[in-house]
Known about the structure:
Helix content of chain A: over 70%
Largest interface: A-B, 40 and 70 residues
Number of helices of chain A: 13
Number of helices of chain B: 18
Strand content of chain B: 15-25%
Number of strands of chain B: 23
Distance between the termini of chain A: 52 Å
Largest sheet of chain B: 6 strands, mixed
Structural class of chain A: mainly alpha
Oligomer: heterodimer
Helix content of chain B: 25-40%
Shape of chain B: globular
Order of helices and strands of chain A: EHHHHHHHHHHHHH
Radius of gyration of chain A: 24 Å
Amino acid sequence: MTTTLPAPRSEAPLPVAPPEAPASDRGARLAQATVRWIAALGGAFLIFSALLISKNANPLTVYTDAWNSTFARQQSIEDIVIKMAPFVLAALAVVVPARAGMANVGGEGQVIIGAVAACGTAMAVGDALPGVTVMVLMMLAGMVAGALWAGIAGAMRLLLKVNEAVTTLLLNYVALDVLLFLIYQPWRADPTGQPATKELQTAAKLPLLAGTTVNVGIVIAVIAVVLVWIALSFTTWGFSLSVVGGNAEAARRAGLPVAKLLLSALLVGGALAGLAGMVHFAGVEYKLRPGFGAQIGYTAFLASWLARHKPIPVLLACFVFAALTVAGDSLQLDAGLPAATVNILTGLILIAVLGWTTSTRKANS
Amino acid sequence: MSEAVLDEPPARSAELAVPLLSVSKFTKHFGEVKANTDVDLDILPGEVHALVGENGAGKSTLLKMIYGVYTPDSGRMLVEGAEVRPGSPADARALGIGMVFQDLRLVPAFTVVENIALSMAGGQFLRPDALAKQIDEASAKHGLRVHAKARVRHLSIGERQRVEILKVLMTGARLVILDEPTSVLAPQEVEALFGVVRHLRDLGFGVVIVTHKINEVRAIADRVTVLRGGRTILQGVIPSDYTNTELIEAMVGRAVSDLVADRAPVAGAAGSAPALELVGVRANGDRGNEALKGITFSVAPGELVGVAGVAGSGQRELCEVALGLRSTTSGAVRVCGTTTGSPRAALKAGAVSVPEDPVADTVVSRLSVLEHMALDGRALPRKRMGLNWSMIRSRSEKANSALGLKMAPLHRKVSELSGGNIQRVVLTRELSLDSTLVVAAYPSRGLDVLNTRRTQEILLEKRNASAGILMISEDLDELMSIADRIVVMHDGHVSGILSADEFDRQRIGELMLGGAA
């Protein structure tokens, strides 16, 4: 049997899409973006100055003092680098799930749980093993614990369809209570003194870089940045995560294991945050106490946003936040302003930068 | 489409009225690309003017210049006799020019009132009740049935389109431009739309309707302007003065011989399992309603089975069930004899698919055409830790030249492509694979005449290579010309299965409405 279709057409010229933007525009656009960034930062500092004036402080003196005490002293720069390490690791814990389209707001809790696991491991092992071995065990314990903690949120997302932004956030409060329970009860070193665990054995403390007060945490963090960058940019896993993050339905239709990918992103994120907790514990604090690791997770979340969830820019963003934290301490000392004042500046910068750069992106698309 | 739609519209002579819009010698070049060269167009009050042309003929550029999105390099534009130069869509709207885009731009979570309030200039406060009253008055006056308090996400595409048109009218448009309005509609909805358009014409509005379907030009247009390669080929002619062949030739450039669809005897290889077998399949839709209510039929290897039905009769769910994307509540689904309960199992059994909604179902933001080509359902080709991009590249280039659908360059971001170009990427990826089952939902959506024909040829080639093909289409002519059998769906049931010698437009139409056998 034969049927005919209505007359078909001959070859039409290939429709060429009009070029969206000539390349010559690129320079102008970059200049425009730079101006926007400067305007954003300038605006933030302007508002902060107004605040300082209202507190009878001379903004110029405050900025000069803060700059000098932050960047003109070797020790302050070392402090920045020390603070940076857990920030970077915890920010990567946001970057990886973000690639799969998820928001990990649980850095705070995953950091604490990682530190708890590291501390528990050190206490269990005691002096029986060489320091390096203890360190490696602590790292592994911190990463596994962080991953499991994030995995709770992952399981709830996959099995119960509860949004991970909510569960990771709420698990922060649970983690904090776990910490408080341990240091007030079973792990309390001195029943009459401050609630805290006993100090980490010296051999298991992270070693310092030669001639400085900086622990090797920053090296671990930089290595992690490079590994995450490679994993996200060059591996099939990273590509698959981008597909899931870009359009989960498309991923499902292409036969990608969407559930496994989502879970793996959260587990890796949790492991990185757990590692941040271990680094902060074994490199900075040496003991668990109330308020351990406070703000690391939230600051890192902001840093990841500022870096648009890209691993390499995370380094820069974390440096900025670490510097602001150190500057905040000197504000307190020099200008007699509460250290929290600097949080206002941090918030202003973040809002300004996100607001302005987002509108740039829209204008460009 | 029914007889009514195909009725000849009353031929209207160009009366002495001042044109609502008159464009002369519009030229717009993007670097090397001559999108428009000396294009002329004039629209009279009280006429329906069809603007036709293949993809890339320059229709969008012309409309964007009229609507103030682009500025023409040269040329003049008059609105009711006065020269104007709209610099933005807001300017164009102030001049009484309204545009309804192909991708409807409503907020799904908002009600109709809220959506219309968004586009109305006015005070700082929403007065929903007053506005609802205004909407009801306007919808009565213009013959656009719209439920003002309904949430947009509960409306069908046809209803959403009516809201868009109403919105445009309520902002004071005298000239309404509809950009490919029928491409998203089922036949019945097309009829309703054309009713609205005729009513607007009778009220004295000028209506521009963009299309590349000749039968729509015949059904609705008083005059037609044909663009090709950015130039006006026919300007404002009366369609009945031209034959179909002449109009299509004006669009495409030259004519080509007819495609002959040989129908192989539909036996399939004796003893081999059907490419797709559905037995008593029941499944729920997204809203928890039962969307498939006991579907039983099969597609043999080497057979092309068409599915006809009013939009929302269960076609989407049928495709998803066949591909393992939607779980069934009872019944069995088998691809080549293996039961498939997951997308991976269906892919492994050799199923490929052209999704109903390519943007929502396959386009990944930020990824290029090349990266989309990697996502063809096969295991990602690896090279050390990463993907073997050079292999994907050569594979894609081979697929592109074999299928001849001329997909966009591999480095382009898919989310920035037009609907037709996205469709060509999807078609090239899916139809270049070796497959035992092709599930194609509206495969020619967004395509021009040439690519539609090429896609039909490819589907027939796949059929002849003994793949089973399940094809959903809203175009009965398309189904009747290439399908070996047509399954008609109504409200989640199969209301009839017709073999080729039983094809009859009237009969299929009755079955689509559930007609008793």
